[in-house]
Amino acid sequence: FQIWVGIDGFEDISFTYGPALSLGDGGWLTVGAENAYGNSGENYYADGDGTPPAAGTDVVVTSVPGAPGETHTIAFTAKGRRKGEWKNCAYMTGDTFFGTNIACFSGVVE
Fold it and tell me: Is the pTM of this model over 0.70?
């Protein structure tokens, strides 16, 4: 199979299946998507439930967009390799506001 991650913006992730398909070892194939924590997602096919993907099947990953004015937190972890001061900036653009939103953070690795 192939995973396609597009650059066209929202909802542009899909799985595409070719002609050589298997239901996995013991029939335990799972097809779906979930968040990084594994606590939110959806299965297309899991361990015999649902419809297994056939040759040429495209499974598109979609989500529910946030409401206007809603906030969304993106978390990450960083590890300092050298001692000293650091500064990291995130740049965000979108079609719901003009310009670029910039948020910078700084600190010291001791």
Answer: no
